[in-house]
Amino acid sequence: MNEFSFIIFLPQKTLKILNLSFYSDTAELNNRAFLYGDAVRVSFFVHQSRIILAEECYFFLMASMRKMRMAIPLSYTLEFFVELFTENVIEKGVSEGVINFHVYRNSQENLLSKREISFYFEVETPRNILEMQRVFEIDLIKEISVNANVLSGIHVHSPENIYAEVYAADNELDDVILLNPNKRIARAGIGNLLFLSGNTIKIPKQSEGAFVSPLMESFVTFVHQNKLAVIEEAELIAFESQKAEEIMIVSDEKGIFPVMKIRNKTFEKTRFTEMVSAWSQSFA
Predict the structure, then answer these.
(1) Which contacts of 155-158 are long-range, i.e. CB under 8 A and separated by 24 or more positions?
(2) DSSP code, position 29
(3) Neighbouring-strand partners of residue 197
(4) Rounded mean pLDDT of 129-141?
(5) What's the per-residue H, E or C state across 191-218?
(6) What is the pTM of this model?
(7) From the centroid of its chain, how far is CA 283?
(8) Count of CB atoms within 10 A of residue 213's CB?
(9) How many CB atoms lie within 10 A of CB 171?
(10) Which sign, positive or negative, has the C-alpha torsion 186, 189, 194, 195?
(11) In terms of C-beta density within 10 A (0-12 exposed, 13-18 middle, 19 or more buried), how is residue 94 classed?
(12) Which UniProt keywords apply (predicted)?
């Protein structure tokens, strides 16, 4: 196994945030992630000084790399990642946070599918990924759409996400609802959308352009197993966003956000907050 370099950035003390960045030693500025967006990203989660959902996140990483035809090193085992993050994140003092792990192909002369890979990860902290964050105001965007193919569910370079982020900021919004080419709801810019009406939570199907999300899968599995609501994967037209009683965004990278407002309609967050609280307690 190659040795690694570890870089710590300490921002202004008033922020009280510790940013950790970590490169494998083969990392280089002239890499395909920077030049071509040839990379995948998966988030791992630290909660109460331990890695949670490690197996689910690991298998998502392996699946994402296979979909992008990356050569997976034999050393990339679940144990390798648990040890890597324990030594370089938890033992550095991080008790709550999100590890955003990027894998990219190196610039070499052999076939793309045979090239070695490097990785980079950064840690955002402190934040309890299992708690509700601040409320969001969002809106529907129709200028662009997101694809709904086998690559749509993984986290790769996406100009649609960048455009959505800029559009939201320019219009004083927190995020936007993105549609697929069939004009149905795919996801938000930063994550997946959940719509609660009555006793049913509707979630856009992955075939509609939604992300694969270990965090969301854990939440909806808990809700289903504890009979807190009926989970329905659905094909949703844009009007569904106005019919819902509560809306929530689940982002592996950013966290969980209740939607407060879409245009002139406001939403509650009581029931989703209760569900998220019960789910969070199950990790204690």
Answers:
(1) 155/40, 155/41, 155/42, 155/64, 155/211, 155/252, 155/253, 156/37, 156/39, 156/40, 156/41, 156/64, 156/68, 157/37, 157/38, 157/39
(2) S
(3) 200
(4) 96
(5) CEEEEEECCEEEEECHHHCCCCCHHHHH
(6) 0.89
(7) 19
(8) 24
(9) 11
(10) negative
(11) buried
(12) Lyase
Tokens 């370089």 belong to residue: 88
Tell me the Ramachandran region of residue 228: left when phi exceeds 0, alpha when psi lies from -120 to 50, beta otherwise: alpha
- The answer for residues whose C-beta is within 8 angstroms of residue 44's C-beta and 6 or more apart is 51, 53, 54, 57, 81, 85, 98, 99, 101
Q: Which residues are 231's β-sheet partners?
A: 201
CA–CA dist 97, 51 (Å, integer): 10
- The dihedral through the CA atoms of 152, 158, 160, 161 has a sign that is positive
Q: Indicate whether 8 pLDDT > 90.
A: no
Closest CA to 125 of 101, 155, 83, 89: 89
H/E segment holding residue 14: none
pLDDT value of residue 163: 96
Between helix 270-281 and helix 214-225 the angle, nearest 10°, is 100
Among 87-91, 125-129, 216-220, 229-233, the minimum mean pLDDT is found in: 125-129
| Residue 124: how many other CB atoms lie within 10 Å | 20
In degrees and rounded to multiples of 5, residue 21 shows phi and psi of -125, 140
| Confidence at residue 7, expressed as pLDDT on a 0 to 100 scale | 38
Does the bond joining 11 to the residue before it have cis omega, within 30 degrees of 0? no
Q: Which has the minimum average pLDDT: 4-18, 43-57, 176-190, 263-277?
A: 4-18
DSSP state of 44: E
Q: Are 98 and 45 in contact (CB under 8 A)?
A: yes
- Tokens found for residue 78: 């679940």
